[in-house]
Amino acid sequence: MKAEVVKGWPRNNAIRILLKDTDSSQVNAIRRALISDVPKLAITRVNITQGVVENDGQIMESVNVLPDEVLAHRLAMIPIPTFTDDNIYFTENCEECMYKADTEKGCQQCQIIYSLNVQGPASDSEQQTVTVYAEDLTTVSDQKYDILEEHKRIPLTILSKGQYLELYALARMGRGGAHQKWCPVSGVGFRPLQKAVLNKPKKADVLFSLGLKTSDGKDINAKLFGSNKTIDDINHVFDLEKALHQVGPGTGREADFDDAITMETVEGSYVLSYETDGSYDPKTAFNLAMDELASRFDSIASDLDKAFA
Ligand SMILES: [Zn+2]
Questions:
Q1: Which of 120, 171, 218, 252 lies at a 20 to 30 A Cα distance from 43?
Q2: What is the Å distance from ligand 1's center to 19 Cα?
Q3: What spacing in Å lies between the alpha carbon of 225 and ligand 1's midpoint?
């Protein structure tokens, strides 16, 4: 199998990868590895302070509109930046913590600590509520684990007058197979590589006259097909496929268009596309998925060797 990033990608956290000399079951194995096997950090334990405190004469209580479980879930789903070269251990494999009781597990080598302390509006404030955002989490560990800019405005809950929220949150390594919070990707899909062929240039005018454009701003017209009357550019093929819905069944243009442009499948090649949640860049996520697959097959091979020895 050969893999190459499609020209013009990644865009932010999204990527398209062309996979050649392969079949759908192999590509699906990568898809599944991305979803459930690539390890990443996510908040998995939250310690919420309970009680009543006095602040400048105002009595504050540790309550808010959300039950603790819901709050814990919201915290868990915030993408935590993860670095492959940091060697943060899984807590169950951490030498320090392996043999400790569950409640005592967790050390510098296997968890990242965040704290959060937000109070509702002051009693004389006109403001009725304060919104708690992901950015209110501060890293007690290394600052590189700070919540990313793009996720800072994820709202967690709101606090009214006389309410406060104080907590410690622990992020640990895990895999998407155990819980969605450890899944680094979304919208993972793949499809056979296709090329678009212009069969009937005159009838294709039904589409061309609509004035549609490709995602990079080029006009969808006969020129796009070039002299060999085909489009190989993967991004343009995706754009064209979308555009063909305008002349497809139910549009009233189907008969006039008369399959003037058809899509041809390229055997053995697939386009894999997905987006990461920001915990990894999409290339790193792909490489980690391949590592996970490789180690899995290595262990199957050695198990088979043992079984047949
Ligand atoms: Zn540990």
A1: 120
A2: 38
A3: 58
